[in-house]
Design a protein that fits this description.
This protein has 422 residues and is α/β, with parallel strands linked by helices. The chain contains 13 helices and ten strands. It has two domains: 297 residues, Rossmann fold (3-Layer(aba) Sandwich); 73 residues, no CATH class. Helices cover 40% and strands 9% of the residues. A hairpin with a 5-residue loop joins strand 1 and strand 2. Bound molecules: zinc ion (2 copies). The site of one zinc ion has 8 residues, from helix 13.
Length: 422
């Protein structure tokens, strides 16, 4: 868990923006080896200080996470969440007692293998084992869940579908066996895996599939947190990821939920708050941190792996932003800073309705222009409330504009699993 000093060659660092030898570290004046998002040059030591300080001050300033709080860290195996785990672990171990990060962390990994095309049980098993090895190295309790678990009944008392595979006290031998057993029978309730597959097959566009995945993943994370007594969930969304999301959300008509989708704290679920402490870092900085601190991450195939650039709004936006970022290194921070200026209005009336699916404040039916947009996929509720609901015999659940488009893509709302509205 020590950082810095071990790597003498700069070969392993990203090459594109390496400064020339004459650049000096903006903090100490030594020869700089790294350039960060502000185009400031740093030596290795000052970069680590900058990075760690920024992470800690983000948590300190916002006061969202309280000392002693149980925090669930969402680990995907990717570089950003791997850096998050490393930062938390270091924060809890280093420095004076008073300055240490005082939280009770646990880890969660959501296995999304069932919706990845061509990803067989063997590959899935291997992927989970690789992640479990990295997860267990932290010494934190680890919870393994599968995405299809979200479609099991939350209040079911028969079985607990959300199995905690690993605990810090267990030996890794036991854990590996448990993981194997888990993956061999892809779900305790096999029908939930089938239902999840069918749901994703029913979505015509990849954009709808991505929105669905995002929504189900958040619901599952919150559910695992509730079941195990965590009050915060930390996710690894980087500034780069979030700036793509800002642009994509606007394009998808999800602009009203943007402050919740990209802000530091997302409190739409009430008792469990989703926190994004990596949002101040761009992907390049995270990869520098991981290189210097030798933080391991794994690449796992996802829903959108190997799809064409124009396959979805999210994918196209990502290609657009990263294309700009190559020649204009402040692209991400500009988009991100602009997006961060948007906030959720707190003067909404008491009992203001939330979207039944994504739980964001309802943005529908406020102006004639908006309602005309809905007519393409939705019918008005029939009263004078100005609300729009998905088409069907009965009044459907109230949906925000973005979710109503997702549901329209999926077909009839009444055939969708109830858990989507939970
Ligand atoms: Zn320096
Ligand atoms: Zn919604």
């Amino acid at each position: 868990m020590e950082c810095g000093g071990q790597l003498d060659d700069t070969d392993k660092l990203p090459q594109r923006h390496l400064p020339t030898a004459q650049k000096k570290c903006v903090r100490c004046g030594k020869a700089a080896v790294l350039v960060v998002q502000t185009s400031a040059a740093f030596c290795r030591e000052c970069f680590l200080n900058y990075f760690t300080h920024k992470f800690r001050s983000g948590l300190g300033k916002t006061r969202v996470v309280q000392p002693g709080e149980r925090v669930l860290l969402a680990f995907s195996g990717g570089p950003s969440s791997a850096a998050l785990l490393h930062l938390v672990k270091r924060g809890m171990e280093e420095g004076t007692q008073k300055k240490r990060l005082r939280i009770e962390p646990g880890l969660v990994f959501v296995d999304e293998g069932s919706i990845v095309q061509g990803f067989d049980v063997g590959q899935r098993q291997k992927a989970v084992q690789t992640v479990s090895k990295l997860a267990e190295d932290t010494g934190f309790p680890v919870h393994f869940v599968m995405l299809e678990d979200v479609l099991t009944d939350e209040h079911s008392t028969e079985t607990d579908p959300l199995v905690t595979v690993s605990d810090s006290e267990e030996t890794s031998q036991d854990t590996t066996e448990d993981v194997e057993r888990q993956v061999k029978s892809p779900s305790i309730d096999d029908s939930s895996a089938d239902r999840l597959k069918r749901l994703f097959e029913d979505a015509k566009s990849l954009t709808a599939k991505e929105d669905l995945l995002q929504m189900l993943r958040s619901k599952l994370l919150v559910r695992v947190a509730r079941m195990h007594g965590y009050t915060k969930v930390m996710v690894g969304d980087s500034g780069t990821r979030l700036s793509v999301r800002i642009m994509a959300d606007i394009a998808k008509g999800r602009g009203a939920a943007l402050p919740l989708n990209t802000g530091f704290a997302d409190d739409r679920h009430g008792d469990v708050v989703i926190v994004r402490p990596m949002r101040d870092f761009i992907a390049k900085e995270i990869s520098m941190y991981n290189t210097i601190c030798q933080v391991e991450s794994v690449f796992l195939p996802m829903l959108t792996t190997k799809v064409a650039e124009k396959a979805s709004i999210g994918h196209l936006t990502e290609a657009f932003i990263s294309g700009l970022q190559v020649n204009f290194p402040s692209t991400v921070s500009t988009v991100f800073r602009t997006g961060a200026k948007l906030g959720v209005s707190h003067d909404q009336p008491e009992g203001h309705k939330r979207c039944a699916m994504c739980k964001a404040p309802l943005d529908t039916g406020q102006t004639p222009l908006q309602s005309s947009v809905y007519k393409t996929s939705l019918a008005p509720a029939g009263d004078d409330s100005g609300e729009c609901v998905a088409t069907g015999q009965d009044l459907g659940p109230s949906l925000c504009h973005g979710c109503s488009l997702t549901v329209a893509d999926l077909g009839d709302w009444s055939t969708l699993p109830d858990q989507l509205y939970a």
